[in-house]
Each structure stands twice: as structure tokens, then as C-alpha cells.
Amino acid sequence: MMIGVDEIEVVVGHRERTTLRVGDMFLKVDSDPARLDVEVEAMARAPIPTAEVLWHKPSVLALAALPGTALGILGEPSPASPAAWAAAGTAVRRLHDAPLPPWPGKNQDAIAAHLDTECDWLAANDVLPADLVARNRRIAEAAFRPFTPVFIHGDLQLTHVFVDGDEVTGVLDWSEAAPGDALYDLAILTLGHEEHLTDVVAGYGTGVDLDVVRAWWSVRSLSAARWLIEHGFDPDSPGCEFEVLRSQ
User: Residue 197: which residues within 8 A CB-CB, separation 6 or more?
Assistant: First the structure.
């Protein structure tokens, strides 16, 4: 029995992983213990604020709550200031300038092959018009070019970046961290919030090819759609992945 806890909140839950809030503690339960191992190691190596690890056992990770609030939610206007978005860009640059983690990142050929499989599924099942899928697949091609790998977060959704005023207080959910393309992180951070891309780039600095950022928006939105649908999420909600594809 837990003492002093009014309720348990399910923050996110699906077949692969579930995150619960218990008072000021978050419990992450993952079907793949290796993902949590990566998360703990990545947070230890990251040169930016992360949540405090309270304890870690196979398949379960307990984290302290971060101060502040998330940059926003996909599909809703962000309550954060332009300066807060710029601070997020600065934090991402510090991460990208850090030494690479020792484990491998995702293979670009595998990412492209998965993208093609998902595009075929979207068109064949009439989830999206074939011409919309084809147009975004052409846009996505710009992401598949030579690049120098950096230490990326790998799932830098705006809900994972917490700020207090104009300061970044922490970044959550590091299970996809690995060597990878810096512009992928910037794309995921600004997905559905193109209006803040300029702010993020102002904080991040040089080396940002906006066409590649937009290409990663298409890659992400096309590749994630089936997973989102099968796990109870709606990529056709206002401001979400399908709207991103239509706006490209």
C-alpha cells in the first residue's frame, strides 16, 4: 500500500510501454528492458538537464518529476515563449556537441526501407491519398544524404522538453538516444509547430538545412502513422501528422 498518494495517473500507455505518475514520481514500465538501460545511460552522458533517476530495475524505471511544464502538446498552440523555444534549441546544440554514445544508431538504408513499406501501406489501405503520400515521399528523400553523426535524443517531441519561464529545466524519454542526424532532432522538436522553427534555429546556431528538417517531418509523419493508428492514437487530429503531410 502506498501512503500519501491520492491517485495514479496513466500518462501514456500502450502495448510496448506505459508511464505512470505516482505523486512526484514517474514509473516507466517497458516491455524491452534494453530500452530503459539505454535511457539511463544516455541521461548520465547528456550535458543538459534530465530527470533524476530514483531507481532502476529490469523493465521499470522510476524518475523524479521535472520542474516547469512541457513546451507544448502536438496539435495545440504552444504556451511557451519564443525565448523558451530558443533555449530548447541551445540545449539541443549542447547535446549534439557532446561525445557520441558508444552504441550504434539507426541505419539510413533501414529507415528508408521502412519508410517505403509504410508509404505502400498508407496508399494501399486508402489511409491517405496516393498523391499525398507520393509527394511527401519525394520531399522525404532530402533527409537521406551524407551527414556527420552526433549525439541525438532520437525522440525529441515538444512534450519531452520542460521549461520554466525561458529556461530549459529538463528533457525526458531518452530510450531512442544514439548517434544520428542532428536535423532529425530539430525536426521532431518542431513537428506540427513550424512557427517556432525560426526560434529553435536561433538558439541552435549554424548548420541547419531547413529543407532537410522539412524532409524529416515527412519521414516521421509517414513512418509513424500506422504505429499510431494501431496503438490507439489519431494522426489525423488537428495539428498532428496528417496535417503536417498536407501542409508540405
Answer: 186, 190, 210, 213
DSSP string, 139-158: HHGGGSS----EEE-S---G
Each residue's pLDDT tens digit, 14-37: 667 788 888 889 899 988 889 999
Cα gap 6→22, rounded to integer Å:
9
φ and ψ at residue 178, rounded to 5 degrees: 180, 175
CA-nearest of 171, 116, 184, 189 to 145 is 184
Q: In the chain, where are the structural domains located?
A: 68-247
What stretch of H or E contains 25? strand 25-30
User: Which stretches of 70-129 are DSSP H helices?
Assistant: 82-96, 108-124
pTM: 0.93
pLDDT tens, position by position, 91-128: 999 999 999 999 999 999 999 999 999 999 999 999 99
Q: What is the three-class DSSP state of 63?
A: strand
| CATH of the domain spanning 68-247, picked from 3.30.365.10, 1.20.1740.10, 3.40.50.300, 3.90.1200.10 | 3.90.1200.10
Which tens digits make up the pLDDT trace of 34-58?
999 999 999 999 999 999 999 999 8
Q: How far apart are CA 221 and CA 207, in angstroms?
A: 23
Of the pLDDT bands very low, low, confident and very high (cuts 50, 70, 90), residue 1 is very low
